[in-house]
Amino acid sequence: MLTVKGLSYFYNPERLILKDISFDLESHDILCLLGPNGTGKTTLLRCMLALNKMKSGSIKIDGNDLTKASIKKRAEMMAYVPQATMMAFPYEAREIVQMGRVTHLATGGSPSKEDWRLAEEAMEKLGILHMSRHLFNEMSGGEKQMVLIARAMVQQAKILIMDEPTANLDYSNQIKMLQVIKSLAEQGYSILMTSHFPDHAFLACNRAVLMRDGYIMAQGLPEDIVNTENLTKLYATPVCVTEARLDFQDRMIKVCIPVMN
To answer: What's this model's pTM, rounded to 2 decimal places?
Structure first.
């Protein structure tokens, strides 16, 4: 569905921020973008969302050039889930979710009963309908993240761009968030998520991209490229990727362990 080819970006022509970035994202894919701070992950997302204008390359969805699409058309194809944040006004959770329907409203139009039904349906699917009247700014980080995902769902775009969806969540809520992401992919969404936790590539993703200094160092199946050698090079610190046995499930899983001197 989504094809990024030869994408480059810079603020100063003498210092490229993104260098010839290329990857594909298809229906049901969950692609985990891994890399250290300052490597260009957020800039890449901003280019994909047309918040930054790339200097070269192309971004296409089903063969359609995203850079030539209107804001409305882009919103119909791609939805963004930012890290949970504060809102300037005391909106209820259901009002935040309803904002995802803006692209489907006529100019100056108000939400219809169908728009509100879709918002409730999305919240129900995520198990947060009981919080519809809660004030967004008073919710926990995990609850806010669920509300923002529901907002993206009612936008009815099949590509979801998620910027560190597990950031600032405790261990339990990280796992719940990854389970929600896997469920969305099973429903047909294509998901690109950034993460600072390499283990997430094994837990929830079928694709991984390792990015450092503005270029893609490796991409492919997590079990193939998320390994000791690549992670040690990616983060410039010793990392060991090994296997652990889950006795209660009688299976082996890969885990990433930072090595401290």
So the answer is: 0.90
